[in-house]
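Our example pasted here:


***
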Amino acid sequence: MSPYSELPCWVIMNCGDNNKCPAKEQPQLNCWDIFSEVDEKVFNICRDCLVYLSRQEESILSRQEMDQIMLAKGIDVNAMSAGMAVNSDS
């Protein structure tokens, strides 16, 4: 599984803090499960989503590809991971 698999979908998708989102309101569920309840066709979109791909046992994207995509989105996961490690030590 990808090192991104533990990140919430709104972090991976770089959603703004002010966006009201059912996934933020139900973080224990996978976002694709939440949205497929609304529209079954949404899963076809979700299968191509970075969040879905990052949580698969055998992702089609390598760690390097995911790192590049995340950096292009303006998300430095290495810095986030370092921050999480520091916080978990507290």
About this structure: Residues 84-90 have pLDDT under 50 and may be disordered. The chain has seven helices and no strands. The chain has one domain: 9-81.
